[in-house]
Task: structure prediction
Amino acid sequence: MSEFYTSTDHFVLVPALLLALFGCFVLLADFLVFPRPKHRRYVVILVALGEAFTGAALWRQHSFLSAHDLASVSAFHGSLVVDGMSIFFNWIFIAAVLLVALVSYRYLETEQEHRAEYYGLMMLAQCGMFFLAAGTDLVTLFVGLELMAVSFYVMVGFLRRDKRSNEAAMKYLLLGAFSSGFLVYGFSLLYGLCGSTRLDRIGEAVTERGPFDPIVFLALTTTAVGLLFKVSAAPFHMWAPDAYEGAPTTVTAFLAVGSKAASFAFLMRMFLYPLAGARPAWEPILIGVAILSMTVGNLAAITQNNLKRLLAYSSVSHAGYILLGLVAGNETGIKGMAVYILVYLFMTLGAFLVVVALRRKDLAGEDVDDLAGLIHKSPVEAVLMLIFMLSLAGIPPTAGFIGKYFIFLSLIETGHYVLAVVATLYVAVAIYYYFRIVKSMFVGEMTDTVPLMGGFGMRIALGVTGVLTLLIGVYPEPFLQFAQTSLGR
Amino acid sequence: MQAIYQSPLFLPLVMTVVIIGVFPLLAGYIVLVERKVLADFQVRLGPMRVGPHGLLQPIADALKLLLKEDIIPTNADKFIFWMAPVISTFTALTAFAVLPFTEQLRVADVNVGLLVVSAMSSVGILGIILGGWASNSHYPLLGGLRSAAQLVSYEVALGLALVSGVMSAGTLSMVGIVKTQLARGVWGAFDNFGFMLVPFVIYIIAATAETNRAPFDLPEAESELVAGFHTEYSGFRWALYFLAEYANIFVVSSVAVTLFLGGWLRPFPSVKWLEIPLNYGVPVLLFAGSGVASFPLAKRLKSHIHRVGLIGMAMLLVLLGLLLLVPAVNAAVAGFFWFFVKVSSLVYLMIWFRGTFPRFRYDQLMNIGWKWLIPIGMGCILVNALLGLAGA
Amino acid sequence: MDVILFLLFAAIAVACGVNLVVQKHPIASALSLVGVMGSLAVLYLLLGAEFIAAAQVIVYAGAIMVLFLFVIMLLNAGGEPKTPGKSRMAGLLGIPLMAVLLGLLSYLVQRALPKPAGVTFGAFTGGKPYDVGKAIFTEYMLPFEITSVLILIAILGAIVLARKEID
Result:
């Protein structure tokens, strides 16, 4: 350790270091340890090992913070911070990567594109997510964002022989680059405000200038465009349905939960810290975006027959709900966002896992009709899907209800009654299309008799997501505590 | 009048004009030397007709190129076709701006001088691929693509070798680099316990490739691509490409001399007692010696004018050698002399390469660049850093 | 002198930027981009950031534009055909409206900024290689190091997307 790299720096950076190291290790192990394609699935063990180490490092950070009763530890001249929020989100990323990796090997073998680079990209993308959750410097945040985004561009186009996959990757890349341009433009203005890239300094400058200062406003709107694109909120959601549909389904699942959670971490970091002083300016914008997201997401989902597209639009509407927590902005609202993202992780991932399971040799299994008569063929998956759908719609006693409950509560606490009513109305719309899926599963005629994709990993992943979706709904206390302590600032 | 001399812009402007005016002539004579040396390798005489021993050949060639018909292919993109050679020449000549011929004799001493040279060489590639593309013809296009790939690949190796050099010099300013070598009392190539020879060799190889010279002259491999990217060029436009190529050769040699061979410093710059023998002995021997050696040649020439011309030339050389014995003149010119002697040796080395090495195949070229030069270059940086730490 | 140079190269940069968008042919656009990058380098130089200026030319005008041109040539991309759907109304209305928007925006920004004391060209001396290196390896060390992971991903991505089918 030297003055350039102190032990504090090391302590804060360790999870990212481990992720990057294991990412490289996976790539090396592919041809050094598991040269035969048949054995490539054991790379998943390596991924799990990496995540275990990362988790241990996170746990160390967590216990250090609570042992010394610190809110945060900052390192690298204020570029990186470990606080409740970074730890909370990193647990979410770990869960997402583990669950997705568990089902990926069977899926990719079916697609005949099983390559270890996939897992390497996943872990390196997670490394980028770490910086999004923990960065407190514009450059670090931006590089972290690109780290994540570039990995996703490649993963979305991973099925090289599939034209849809290529097309999706291309669309995602072009629009993603465009939105990054907006974001960087906003960042350059923010930097110009105070001559520093540190979020705290920017926060001071923004507060000093006030929310309606033209430059602050310009910086705010352009930054917001970039951020809202990444969380796929309407009207910046255009890429989501195409990218979600074309990408390999496991990547779609990772994109829907991992990328979205990381982007929300980034968004919360930006709006709650440096841009907090400009609240009067961004609150109406976010209200508009949230309502538009719920409208577009819910209404467009009604007409979709492709499950992945349907879930894409549903994720747009969920982004709208999560943004409402930021609009409310009180402690309940922030806690609600955290809980919602946690819940969203398990229920959306679960739903996508069922879609993954529908993929069998010569059967794409992406349409609502492919679910027809699922209850007769594989009752377990059908019941689990029912739970996920109930949860996505937000019906008690599932986890989705808890998520929505806190968002609505925070809206009422802060007096946004109209918003609360609108949001509740859209739940009714959502129920309609989620139950189309349920109806197809339970009432429809079976169209094929090929059994669903199974496997050890799939069973574990489905079990975990299903159990947690129910558990958070029935007994939310420990999870609320988790979110509360994490974000208690 | 006095004010003009003392203006800070005076020397740079004069140098600029001199370089632009003199270099084309110099390039012409480098070509002549190349043809003569190659001929010698092949036991021929080379150009003999224009002037004594072909001494006026470059002027005749330049006149020929100037007077040639200017052909632009019908479907070429006229504007880019016109602009491409200009870009090449412009960037090649701009790099001269930072070359320190001596400590005072230079256009500018920029504190990122070395980067300016590499910036210019990297923009110069544009001229080549644009020329290849604008011709709207197959061979030039392929030649242009090949050359772009080659230049981009070898630029990395070149850059890594430069980084090694800069690491031991500790500055990017060209004048500063030479001054560091003076302070350390050793040429860059022998610094760090002699380890710097490795990056020096890498630099020479990569520089040969950067200038599209044999054995890396694939972009203009006659047997495959006619004449490469400038197949469709003729007359004066072609001459511009030609000028750019030789300007580049001169520039990379000068950079090598500055970074690795002590710039304007004499050999053993720190050994005081060698100053008189080296600074006086070598130039006098060189000029007067070659002058004296020319006399017997003149006797064998048949044409009377040629004979007189060569004898005049020889007298001039001897005179020049004697002039250098005057201490005032010697002090002023010694640095310039050493710089040019070193650059000429490197140019000779490149001609030597051309005379002896067979051309590489395309995949071999890429292998050498990416699998050998670049990893070794990176290793050099590492070892240099360690040696630097050990030396400090 | 400095002001004249600044105005000249700023004008060139803007003109090239406009040309970049207007040109139909990708090669012409790419060349305009070279112009923009080159003029930007001169502007950096005027501000006293020599290292950044040189890096700008090496990286953008040199390496990246060569790759751009390379790709354009390999794809043999021609000029884009005139799209029939474009109405003239769009041009007639859009360009003035855009001009108004940009004017308004620049006016607002102008208004908001405190009157600057006037830029002194060459007064900034933090652009030397030493200063840039120091900033990179102290204050911005973390992003600098993460960039290496980013480059690794880029290489990995290129290999994944361009690999040959072996097994």
Notes: The radius of gyration of chain A is 21 Å. DSSP finds 19 helices and two strands in chain A. The longest strand of chain A covers residues 72-75.
